[in-house]
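Handoff note, outgoing to incoming analyst
You'll be picking up this chain. Sequence as last confirmed:
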Amino acid sequence: MHSADLDEAERSLGESIPMELRSLLGETDGIIGQTSSDAVWPLEKIVRDNLRFRHDESLAGLYMPFDSFLFFGDNGGGDHFAFVLRPARMDIFVWQHESDSRKWVASNLQDYIARRLRQGGDDWYETY
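Most recent structure output, in case you need it:
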């Protein structure tokens, strides 16, 4: 992934991509987990899905706002993983789509990837 692609993604999002994620995307365009779900999405999906979550009026009627999140992965069943942008933190949260809850799952991207790949299974975060 080229730096120019990451810069363009940030312009499209109107947000900076956290440095940890930017660095990872500079090396690889996403990570597939043990169960073939997207542990880390490709950059194109990060941009597309975050814009949809922030601007889709049908979602706005169902859920609390997503403006403070930067989603970057999912469990394959509807729950999504995100950085919190405001206030800026390195912690990773899961948004659980059935309850609209937001729950801490990892202290940073490296911790998230280690937990996700070590635990296996799509619901690994339910134990935290």
